[in-house]
Amino acid sequence: MDSSWYFLRFLQQLDDSIVDTDVMRNLMPVDVYVGGMEHAIMHLLYARFVYKFICDWKGISKDDLMAREPFKELIV
C-alpha cells in the first residue's frame, strides 16, 4: 500500500504532513505513468483509491479537474 501514494508524498519533502492541498493543486495530476502491464494495473487500482480518498479527506471537489485521476496517461 505504501507505493500507492509515493507520488503525493514526494511533493512534501520537507514537511511531516501527509499532503499539502496547495502543492497538489499545482503539481497534480502526474503527466505520465510508465510500468509493466501487471504492475501498472494493480498499482493504478490502489493509487486511484488512495488518491480519491485523500481528495475526499482534504475536501477537494470531484468537479475539480485535479481530483478526477492521479495520472493523465499510462504507458505499458
Keywords:
3 helices, single chain, alpha+beta, 76 residues
Write up what this structure looks like.
The protein is of the alpha+beta class and 76 residues long. It has one domain. Helices cover 42% and strands 13% of the residues. The chain contains 3 helices and 2 strands; from the N terminus they run ααβαβ. It has a two-stranded parallel ribbon with strand order 1-2. Helix 3 (37-57) links the parallel strand 1 (30-34) and strand 2 (71-75).
Biggest sheet: strands, sense, closure?
A: 2 strands, parallel
Structural class: alpha+beta
Spatial gap, N to C terminus = 21 Å
- Annotation field: number of helices: 3
User: What is the spatial order of strands in the main beta sheet?
Assistant: 1-2
Percentage of residues in helical conformation: 40-55%
Number of structural domains: 1
- The average pLDDT score comes to 79
Summarize the structure.
The chain has about 80 residues and is an alpha+beta fold.
Give me the secondary-structure topology.
Blueprint: H1 6-9, H2 21-27, E1 30-34, H3 37-57, E2 71-75
